[in-house]
Specification:
- This protein has helices spanning 2-12, 30-48, 90-93, 100-109, 135-148, 153-156, 175-179, 191-204, 217-224, 258-273, 284-293, and strands at 16-20, 58-60, 78-79, 82-83, 114-117, 168-172, 209-213, 230-231, 277-280, 300-302.
- By secondary structure, the chain is of the alpha/beta class.
- The chain has 2 domains: 13-143, no CATH class; 153-305, Rossmann fold (3-Layer(aba) Sandwich), CATH 3.40.50.
- The chain is elongated.
- The relative contact order is 0.15.
């Protein structure tokens, strides 16, 4: 009888869901981790219908941006001048769907009640491919993003308030979009050639403003010197052209910079998601921007098709 009651109790046990240790390599940026995290959520949805049933997921994000520092809980990282106070770095950027303190206690007290996904999922949608900008993939990914990725209010308060006042073209431009490091894209083009292509779209579709997101100081200055219609998060990180944004994770681009850089990338992502249309190349940033936009863009232009 006692055994039967235990069995019945186990069937009634409410399961909890946890995603932890999203690891895709030291040279992976903030947005790449977000895309991989969406893949983990998708895995839990396929196996347990987590989103469909409205179940919260505890995001235990211990690996950003701590990779290689030798401490999985962030003791060696700093942000905005003070030591990282969180046991979970997700709590620095987002409001966690599950309270971190409760979850830490629960996993210790009731480990059998937790289903964990540990970053090993290699299926879609982590692939950076245009196929996943189709409605078939966008709809569920937008739903996951809207449900589980809720930026901290203090981050929302920093967003550019003018973007939605105008017909704004959002531009995400990386140095690799011009240098063409990817084998499936055309050879090197100059800043001026890139700028001229942008202005052709800007004029053709009667945009009123441009929101420019780029980590590259030379591209930023090139645009700012030529047109007054630029909106930009002026104080976000900028790096020289001989570095990639990923390399910058180990540079002194910002004093005590690691968490702050992720915050600034998130600000650019959120600003771009509020634009009327988007000009981009396929990347982790453009993927996440599209998910935050929730399929509201009037147009998405891919630079390599211009």
């Amino acid at each position: 009888m006692i055994i039967l009651l235990d069995v019945l109790k186990s069937f009634k046990m409410e399961m909890n869901y946890r995603i932890w240790d999203i690891f895709i390599g030291r040279r992976s940026g903030f947005s790449a981790h977000l895309v991989r995290l969406l893949g983990e959520i998708h895995k839990l949805e396929l196996e347990h219908q987590v989103y469909t049933k409205g179940h919260p997921i505890w995001i235990d994000w211990v690996d950003w941006p701590d990779i290689g520092d030798g401490n999985p809980r962030g003791a060696l990282n700093y942000h905005e001048g003070s030591k990282m106070p969180f046991k979970n770095s997700w709590d620095y950027y987002f409001d966690n769907p599950v309270d971190t303190n409760w979850a830490l206690h629960s996993t210790e007290e009731n480990p059998e009640s937790w289903i964990s996904s540990n970053g090993e999922y290699n299926g879609n949608p982590p692939s950076q491919d245009k196929a996943f900008f189709t409605e078939q993939w966008l709809a569920p990914l937008c739903n996951y993003t809207r449900t589980y990725f809720k930026p901290k209010q203090e981050i929302v308060n920093l967003l550019n308030k003018d973007i939605t006042k105008y017909k704004t073209l959002g531009i995400h431009c990386r140095r690799s979009d011009l240098v063409r490091e990817h084998s499936n894209i055309a050879p090197y083009i100059t800043n001026e050639e890139y700028f001229n292509k942008v202005m052709k779209i800007y004029t053709q579709y009667n945009f009123e403003k441009i929101y420019l997101a780029t980590e590259e100081i030379e591209i930023y200055n090139f645009f700012m010197q030529r047109i007054p219609e630029i909106l930009s998060q002026y104080d976000c990180y900028r790096i020289p052209g001989n570095y990639s944004s990923v390399d910058a994770l180990s540079l002194d681009v910002r004093p005590l910079h690691k968490y702050l850089m992720g915050k600034e990338i998130l600000i650019d992502i959120l600003n771009l998601s509020k634009c009327d249309s988007l000009l981009c190349s396929i990347s982790g940033v453009s993927n996440v921007v599209t998910y935050f936009n929730n399929m509201k863009y009037k147009n998405v232009f891919y630079f390599d098709e211009l």
